[in-house]
Amino acid sequence: MTRILVDLDDTIADWSSRYDSALNRTQGAENIPRSHQHESFDLTTGRTPAEKKIIHAIMAEHSFYAELQPITGAIRALQEMVMDGHEVFLVTSPWVSNPTCASDKLRWVEDHLGTEWSRRTIITSDKTMIRGDVLFDDKGEITGIATPTWTQILVSQPHNRHTEGLVRLRGWFNWREAVMEALK
Prior knowledge:
Elements: E1 3-6, E2 13-14, H1 15-24, H2 49-59, E3 69-70, H3 74-83, E4 87-92, H4 101-113, H5 115-118, E5 121-123, E6 134-137, E7 151-155, E8 167-169, H6 175-182
Parallel strand pairs: 1-4, 1-6, 4-5, 6-7, 7-8
Antiparallel strand pairs: 2-3
């Protein structure tokens, strides 16, 4: 049995659309890049102090994470993983300055996947501490205090388009092939 770890934000939950929507309704955010323009995972790189303040305010919004929409095919892929006999856990990092982030993420999981999945959800600032065989994640370089036991499968997003050397998932329709390639 393969232990599959799956990130939430921009992996199974559409963080980018929610972020872009918040920027579009915020005065003073006109020059802040939208998600399709990101060149790095860090939202504040190259931003002015005023723009950083706007970004941090958006990221601290109550219910920000609970209101994300599922990424096409992600829910079905998770269900298929379980049906195929894999041990599947959701592993997500909190935005620590958002007081409702952790509870929002658990609410999102319950709303879209059910209560059973909230018991399969791990919220941690260091994903290297979590044991697994593969990790689906959109962050190009995941670091922490431990050497990961998992092999990363990079979920394609604009901010990681220049990342090389990882198995890449371009859509949930081929998750099985990505797992097989990562475990070779």
